[in-house]
Amino acid sequence: MILLVALLSCFGLICAETPYHDRVIGGSDAKPNTWRWQVSLQFDSYNDGYFYHICGGSIVDSFYVMTAAHCILSMDASQYRAVVGEYNLFENDNSELVIPVETIIVHPEWVGDLGKGNDIALLKLSTPIYDNGFVEIANLPYPGQMLPHGFTCYITGWGSMDHIGSTPAKLQVAPINVVEHAVCSTPEWWGSLALETMLCAGGDGIISGCHGDSGGPLNCMTDGVWRVHGVVSYGPAGMCNQVSKPTVFTRVSSFIDWIFSVSLLKCSSLTIFHLE
């Protein structure tokens, strides 16, 4: 039986058969200053001021970041920060904004079981993101919007390079094809674990999300614009890029009403400040 694993970055913090951390499998370095809604969610596990990347996320408002509910390891908001405009995790790109998290809002129907879905959360930031030329609010899909089988999207994130834990410095990107629910929910694929509120992509044994990519976006060009259609949720235990076991995302179009009710997204524009 294939076991579900949340696609977190480990550092010994999550339950897995063998703790390890992997990247967007089959990916390559993203071009700088692209995917500008991508967030590095960072965690201070010992409250000692040392933060490290645990998950991805997406900017959905000047005050809000969307991520996966399973990325929330503590409800103490002071243990988290969002880094936007990030590209190289280990260097100062002069594009980053580091903003503390003020409030954590987990979907009310998240029960800690990946197979039951609702793996989505919003983080309210302590100060608004300002437009420094390297950040952008993500476009979201329409409520209920579905993607056809085989549709090519792009997964982005900062997991490790392989199953032995080689960590990439730069944001990774890879094309990944949607697997429609009618296929993904068959016994040969994810079966009953694939709910209609989820979106499957990959399963070719080559490209997949993996540990460290959780909470990050599935980016799809629809209606002429890039939209975040998915939030990285889970994959198979062991090797992430297994045939017929695609990466599973929370389907954003199933949660638009909740996102808007929580964040009150009225104006999709970043706050502009003039820095003296």
TrEMBL record:
Span of domain Peptidase S1: 24-264
Q: Which domain of life is it from?
A: Eukaryota
Q: Does the keyword Transmembrane helix apply?
A: no
Q: Which residues form a coiled coil?
A: none
**Family matches, as PROSITE patterns:** TRYPSIN_DOM (PS50240), TRYPSIN_HIS (PS00134), TRYPSIN_SER (PS00135)
Q: Which GO terms describe its cellular component?
A: extracellular space
What are the protein's UniProt keywords? Disulfide bond, Hydrolase, Protease, Serine protease, Signal
InterPro entries attached to this UniProt entry = Peptidase_S1_Elastase_sf, Peptidase_S1_PA, Peptidase_S1_PA_chymotrypsin, Peptidase_S1A, Trypsin_dom, TRYPSIN_HIS, TRYPSIN_SER
A GO BP annotation: proteolysis
Recorded GO molecular functions are: serine-type endopeptidase activity
Give the Gene3D superfamilies listed for this entry.
Trypsin-like serine proteases (2.40.10.10)
* Disulfide bond keyword on record: yes
Signal sequence, renumbered to the chain: 1-16
Q: Which family does it belong to?
A: Belongs to the peptidase S1 family. CLIP subfamily.
Name of the featured protein = Chymotrypsin-like elastase family member 2A
